[in-house]
Give the backbone structure.
Amino acid sequence: MLALSYYKTFKTPVIITRSSNNFGPYQHPEKFIPLFITNALEGKKLPLYGNGRNVRNWIYVEDNCRGIEFVMRKGKPGEIYNIGGETEEANIKVAGIIVKKLGLKKDIIKKATDRLAHDKRYALSSAKLKKSGWKPEYDFDSAMAKTIDWYAENGKWWKCLKNRDFKDYIKKAYKKEKGF
């Protein structure tokens, strides 16, 4: 609302994007999909909130980036664009995809106490953006397979995030990059 107020008041060329749930490489392993993939790879349980029927609209990160770029090039100042995937899935189904792809048994999934006031569904319509000519390139299943493979192949990256304090990791990486 603040950004739109600058557009309306000062004609600042503001375009707003709102994205659905992203997933893909380099997502922090505290997030749902990377947590489940990395836990499964480590032989740990997958903590599924409540009955697992909470639904999310998912978009592969590269599609989200393409959507943002599309809006930067073709969007109209003062407008809001939703960038969403073509898939809405229940968390239990997403967990099942991960378990199946990694060749594990479903008993690795354990119920976790649901958060208070946890949203049952996150959804948005990307119709406006699609009408402008944009659409996601990746289907959910192939993007999930690509994501699972990435985490399986890049344990060195995510293990340090799960096993260390993230701030310390960033400080060390910065010092190394700057030659400190």
In short: The chain has a mean pLDDT of 93. Residues 112 and 173 are 34 Å apart (CA to CA).
